[in-house]
Amino acid sequence: MLKSLFSALSPAGRRARLSILILHRVLAAPDPLFPNEIDARRFDAICDWLRSWFNVLPLDAAVRGLRAESLPERALSITFDDGYADNRTVALPILQRHRLSATIFVATGYLDGGCMWNDILVEAVRRSPQSRLPLQELGLPALVSMPIESPAQKRAVIDALIRSSMYLPHDQRTALAKRLAELAGVEPSTDLMMSSTQVVELHRAGMQIGAHTVSHPILAQLDAIAVRAEVVESKRRLEGLIGERVGLFAYPNGRPETDFSAATLGVVRAAGFDAAMSTAWGCADARTDLFQLPRFTPWDRSRLRFGARLAGNLMASRRRPPRMVEHSAGSGDGLRAH
Question: Does the global pTM surpass 0.90?
Fold first, then answer.
């Protein structure tokens, strides 16, 4: 029944619609702090569902199909953001077992032992031997000393920290995360993100590698020179690793206007990419800007609910196109600063 519904909502050719899933991690086992994070068993089930319902395409082929209005019915692509090591160690064997392809968007500055600011925060709270953290020493409004004795308390602290620091300037939020690690008595992890070797292994296994900047900043906060450095250096580093052109990009955080702007679009286009991913919910069709492709992943655990929400996303995007950045005069050269 669901397969027939997807065929009706996502036909072939000129009226085709492309669903793009966005994921980040596939954990080896469930995480008590983040019970909704996808683990290996759940990802295996999701891959089984997707293979039975959709024509799962490599993302570059899907982009070409959108451009040529030649997509098959029930077209879908799978993407991962950031470059976590479990994309190689946990997700890849499952994808291979189901004969599926995925695109991994890598923030190159964290390869080979780096740790993203949000993961420094999470691991500081998770692994601290203390019963309470003096958050007021971080200098953020409304943060006070908070207990971290139970998983619920730890999660409350993590949520408060990320909410308070998400849109700080990149250097400031990184410094804050490292200061928290010091207060917590925890050394940042060096094995959460992929190594350069793992990126190459994914590519050789048939997965696609895309760029995701160097340091995962909020691009809309940067001037054009800084945006260009983040975008171009990420592309250059990955091309050097895999020995092939990298034609796909994903905006960090990815919300239109909030996280990337018309000027950002201009820089990414000028850098020579073929398409770029946002995190606006929806599906793409022949009218969609290839540099603002929407992505969506259901959070449901049952087959029926997961499929129903995918169908709902297809239907909703027919009635209401995904949110996009409006192009402005002069945005194509990427020279406008913020």
Answer: yes
